[in-house]
Amino acid sequence: MSGDPEQAYFSDGITEDIITELARFTELMVIARTSSFALRGRMLDLREVGRTLSAGYVVEGSVRRAGNRVRITVQLVETASGTHLWADRYDRSLDDIFSTQEEIAQSIVAMVAQRVIDDNELTSRRRRPEDMRAYDLFLQGNRLSDDFRPGAQARAEALFERAAKTDPTFARAHTGLAYIYLNRASDGAIGIPRQEDENRIKALRSAEMAFALDPSDPRVQSTLGYICLTWRDFKRAEHHLGLAKSMNPNDATILIMWAWMQGAIGRAEEGLAGAEIAYRLNPLYPSWYNYYKSRLLFQTGRYSEAAVLLEQRTFATPEREPRDMAWRAAAYAHLNRIEDAEKCGRVFLDAVSRRWCGDAAAGPVDYVNWLVDVSYLREEKDVDRLRQGLRLAGLPA
User: Which of these, 87, 90, 283, 307, is most buried using a 10 Å CB contact count?
Assistant: First the structure.
C-alpha cells in the first residue's frame, strides 16, 4: 500500500515469510505461497477462496512501508461462514520485522489451534540477518528467481550478490545464488561433466556456504540436499533433505524435492506419497512439480499417468525440454506406443545435438548416457527401466 508498485516484492516477501512461520506449527496444514498468491488481486469472496484451496481459514492483510517503518494489518477469517475471528495491526521498525512475523503467526495459531507451541518446541528458526538491507535485496532477487525472461536471472544474481556483500552472514543470499548457478548449469552446459562445469561447482559452493552460515534454516538444508542430488551425492542429499522435511513438514517446496529424492534412491512409492502431500499443500502448484511427479510415476510403472504429465510439460515447446522428451519416449515405449515413442526420441536427439557443449565428437550414445546420468537414479533397477524404454523407442541405450 506504499503507492509504489516497485515495492510489491517487499509485501510478497513478508507474506512468504509469514507462511513459512505458520507452516512450522504441526497443528496446521498451510497452503503454499504459489497457490495463495495465484488468487491475489481477484475479486473473490473468501468463501470461494476457501473452496478453491480447500482451506478452512484465510489470512489476509496489507503491508505499508515508509522508510524504516512498516505497518502490517492482518485478519483471520473462517471461510465456511465468512466470520472474522481476529484482527490486529503491527507498527514496527524494519529491524524488528522477524519478531513481528513470528508474533503474527503465533496469534493465528492461538486462534485456530487453541494454543501456541512453546518456543522450545519449534524445530528451527531462521537466523536473522544483521543488516536489514540484505534482507530487502534478497526479497528483490527472490521475486525474479523464477523469471526466465532475458536478463531476469542476471538481475536476480546481482541482487543476491549485493545481499551477500551487504551482510556476509545472511545465508539465504547464498541459497538464492545456488539456484541461479544451478539453473544456468542445467540449461546451458549440456554434456559438460559436472566436475568441469563452473556453474555447477559454484552452485554447490554457495549451498555449502549457506549451510555453514545457518544450518537451522530448513530451506538452507533443502537447497544443499537438492544440489547434492544433482552431484549424485545421494548420501548427503538424503541427509539434508530429510532434515529439511523434519524441520518443516508443511513446506510444499521442501516436500516435492524430498519426494524426488526418494525416487532417486529407489523409494518411488514413498516419493509419490510425499508428492501428494506437496500438491495438497500447494493446489495451484507451479508446473515444475510435474517434472518430479512424472519421474516417480514412471518408476512405479504408471506409464500412462507419467506420459500425460510429460505431454503437458512439452506440448508447446518440446525442443526446450529434452530431458522430458526422453522420459516421454520411454513412457510411450513401455505402453507399446512405438511410433509416438520414436518421434519423441528423435526430438530428444535433435534438441541435445544442437545444445551439446561437451565433446565435439559425441553422438547419440553419448546423448543417451548424459540423459541417464542427469536423471539421478541410484538404483540399477530404475536405470534399467529407463534404458529399456529408451531402447524400445529406438534410442541407443
Answer: 307
Does residue 190 carry a pLDDT above 70?
A: yes
Provide the 10 A C-beta neighbour count for residue 130: 12
Distance CA 325, CA 367 (A): 13
Using CA atoms, how far residue 63 sits from 1, 32, 46, 66, 106, in Å, is 6, 19, 19, 10, 18
Q: Which three cell numbers stand for residue 294?
A: 512424472
Q: Going by C-beta distance under 8 Å and a sequence separation of 6 or more, which residues neighbour residue 389?
A: 298, 329, 330, 331, 333, 334, 341
Q: Which residues contact 176 (CB under 8 A, 6 or more apart)?
A: 138, 141, 142, 145, 156, 159, 160, 163
pLDDT digit string (tens) for 124-139? 445 566 677 888 899 8
- The pLDDT, as a whole number, for residue 43 is 77
Q: Residue 205 pairs with which residues in a beta bridge? A: none
262 grid coordinates: 526418494
Calpha distance 141→176 (Å, rounded): 8
CB 138 within 8 A of CB 172: yes
Strand order in the sheet with 83-93: 57-66, 69-78, 83-93
Give, as one character, the DSSP assignment of residue 126: P
pTM, whole model, 2 decimals?
0.76
Average pLDDT, the chain: 88
CB atoms within 10 A of CB 147: 12
- Helix/strand/coil for 56: coil
Predicted confidence (pLDDT) per residue in 8-49, tens digit? 787 788 788 788 878 877 667 888 888 888 887 777 888 888
Q: Which three cell numbers stand for residue 74?
A: 492482518
User: What are the distances in angstroms from CA 88 to CA 8, 91, 104, 208?
Assistant: 21, 10, 9, 39
Burial of 287 (0-12, 13-18, 19+ CB in 10 A): exposed
pLDDT category at 116 given cuts 50, 70, 90 is very low
Instruction: Tell me: pLDDT of 120 over 80.
Output: no
Residue 70: all three cell numbers together: 512498516
pLDDT in tens, 361-392: 999 999 999 999 999 999 999 999 999 999 99
Q: Centre a 10 Å sphere on the Cβ of residue 73 and count the other Cβ atoms it contains.
A: 15
Helix (H) or strand (E) holding 327: helix 322-334
Nearest Cα neighbor of 270 from 278, 262, 258, 279 is: 262
> Is the separation of the CB atoms in 206 and 181 below 8 Å?
yes
